[in-house]
Amino acid sequence: MNNQTAAMLDHVRAALPASGAHGFDHTLRVARLAGVIGAREGAEMAVLVPAAIFHDIARPIEEETGVPHEEEGARMATAYLESVRYPAECIAGIVHAIRAHRYSSGIDPGTLEARVLSDADNLDAMGAVGIARTFMQAGEQGRGIADAAGHFHEKLLNLKDRMYTESARELAGERHALLLAFLTALEDECAPGR
Description:
Layout: H1 3-15, H2 24-41, H3 45-54, H4 59-65, H5 69-83, H6 88-100, H7 112-123, H8 127-140, H9 145-154, H10 166-190
Helix pairs in contact: 1-3, 2-3, 2-7, 3-6, 3-7, 4-5, 5-6, 6-7, 7-10, 8-9, 8-10
């Protein structure tokens, strides 16, 4: 990790809770996944790495104000990157990837880096980590098991078919199978008469 990346991580760490469904630990996992996928797919890492680091920086602001975190996060990333004189030719790609990463944003990830970030973020919502994050988020919002199980059907089970890159599709298959097995067991245990 270079000094520039370490400084970005420190900057984002200060804006996010250490853990939680969208805490700094999520950012670290997404950045790691994006790095693995990006290397396999030939992404421009000078765009992808900062986009992954900054992708959720504005989550706390969204929770307070309702401003979409992908829009505010893109603004915050731009301000930071310009302040440290990051290569100007990279900033537009970083901003696009941040704006397009969200499952529900409706923005088409039009670059390889945006597709990789979307894939990495979605992969962190799958598998064992995705299960844990789903229940953390339900708890954070004062909701219960039934609400968390509903989230599996509304979003998580759809993620496997939303992967853009071949590398992510390979990783998603195993994580999707775990989601299905867990959900089957959960619904069985919660069934009336059990």
